[in-house]
């Protein structure tokens, strides 16, 4: 049971380039999310999914796309990278059982856009 | 809208000192509340949680009580260790697993 895995761990892009950050979970969780973490701002929700085929925008969705074709995978696409997207990106999966929520985080991808 | 406010850091303490990290929240419903911890270079790990008013979450000597009347969930530990040095995040969730995080509080514990 690997939990939540993310690739790559580090990435450097030039302005205008596109790329996909990969995220996979093997816990059969319905819910998956992408966050970015910037100094002094905590984690901000980019996009989330409540199940395969269903996605929605979070707090800071501009410049990012997502899709959820399977329960396991939730890739994040940067369409045209900008220096403002330099950040650490975390993927998370979660489940709900009654009033109980559990969320598990991946190890993160550190992205630098020059 | 929903939000979480944490005390700003860094917080610097000597080993065996008492720790309090304040957290207050704003929510339109009745959220579940969490504390997460992040060690350098790692992702977030769940530290403790509380799902309803007056619940106390506890783990590894840390405690936090869900106070609906003051909309607070302050993190406490009676005696910190150097190994507790990390960044601590308060968070809430109550709708579609959308988590809202505070800005984080960095704790430095000196030997």
Topology:
The complex is a heterodimer of chains A (114) and B (111).
Chain A: E1 4-7, E2 10-13, E3 19-25, E4 31-37, E5 43-51, E6 54-57, E7 64-66, E8 76-78, E9 87-97, E10 100-105, E11 109-113
Parallel strand pairs in A: 2-11
Antiparallel strand pairs in A: 1-3, 3-8, 4-5, 4-9, 5-6, 7-8, 9-10, 9-11
Chain B: E1 3-6, E2 11-14, E3 19-21, E4 23-26, E5 32-38, E6 44-50, E7 56-59, E8 62-65, E9 75-77, E10 86-93, E11 99-101, E12 105-110
Parallel strand pairs in B: 2-12
Antiparallel strand pairs in B: 1-4, 3-9, 5-6, 5-10, 7-8, 8-9, 10-11, 10-12
Quick recap of the structure?
The complex is a heterodimer of chains A (114) and B (111). With 114 residues, chain A is an all-beta fold.
Structure write-up:
The complex is a heterodimer of chains A (114) and B (111). Chain A contains no helices and 11 strands. Chain A is an all-beta fold and 114 residues long. In chain A, strands 2, 4, 5, 6, 9, 10 and 11 form a 7-stranded mixed beta sheet that branches. The model of chain A has no long low-confidence stretch (mean pLDDT 93). Chain B is mainly β and 111 residues long. In chain B, 0% of the residues lie in helices and 51% in strands. Chain B has no helices and 12 strands. In chain B, strands 2, 5, 6, 10, 11 and 12 form a 6-stranded mixed beta sheet that branches. Chain B has a 4-stranded antiparallel beta sheet with strand order 3-9-8-7, with no helix packed on it. Chain B has a two-stranded antiparallel sheet with strand order 1-4.
Essential attributes:
heterodimer; A: 114 residues; mainly beta; 4-stranded antiparallel sheet; 0% helix; 55% strand; globular; B: 111 residues; 6-stranded mixed sheet
* Main beta sheet of chain A: 7 strands, mixed
Shape descriptor of chain A reads globular
What's the gyration radius of chain A in Å? 14 Å
* Series of H and E elements of chain A: EEEEEEEEEEE
Distance from N terminus to C terminus of chain A (CA atoms, Å) equals: 36 Å
* Biggest pleated sheet of chain B: 6 strands, mixed
Q: Give the strand content of chain A.
A: over 45%
Distance separating the two termini of chain B: 41 Å
Structural class of chain B: mainly beta
**Strand and helix order of chain B:** EEEEEEEEEEEE
Structural class of chain A: mainly beta
H/I helix tally of chain B: 0
Q: What's the overall average pLDDT of chain A, rounded?
A: 93
Estimate the helix proportion of chain A, in percent.
under 10%
**Rg over C-alpha atoms of chain B, rounded to the nearest angstrom:** 13 Å
Query: What fraction, in percent, of the residue positions of chain B are helical?
Result: under 10%
Outline of chain B: globular
- Percent strand of chain B: over 45%
